Amino acid sequence: MRSDGSALNPRRWWRSAGFAWTGVRHAYRSQANFRIEVWAGAAALALAAALRVPLAPVALACALVLALELVNTAVEAVVDLTSPDPHPLARVAKDAAAGAVLVAAAGALVVGLVTLAPPLWRWVTGTG
Question: Which PROSITE patterns does this one have (predicted)?
Fold first, then answer.
């Protein structure tokens, strides 16, 4: 595929960003887990803002989960395209991609607990 100019070209950047947003929209429309993760992330960020805790770790954890869910969706699509019939290696690829999302989600849960639970507990118990 031929490049259509410098990576710093704004027109090229916007075109590439448009393709990327098309992928995000497709995942949101077609993947229930992605929708759940988007809204769970939004809730976690809103809670972090309300509790006035640092947003960066929560935002980074949310971004990691969503990014890996997009990669998982891409892996599943490519595997289905190239191996429409069941194959042990196709299963490995799909399971490993899903496992990456699971590991990231577990990490995000830990970040959420460490970051949000103490101030939330103080707010609930009135000891803050």
Answer: DAGK_PROKAR
Tens of pLDDT along the chain (128 residues) come to 556 567 778 889 899 999 999 999 999 999 999 999 999 999 999 999 999 999 999 999 999 999 999 999 999 999 999 998 999 999 999 999 999 999 999 999 999 999 999 999 999 999 86
Q: Which of 69, 70, 108, 112 is catalytic?
A: 69
CATH code, residues 10-125: 1.10.287.3610
Q: Is 37 a catalytic residue?
A: no
Q: Please name which of 104, 102, 103, 123 lies closest in space to residue 52, comparing C-alpha atoms.
A: 123
Structural domain boundaries of the chain?
10-125
Radius of gyration from C-alpha coordinates of the chain: 19
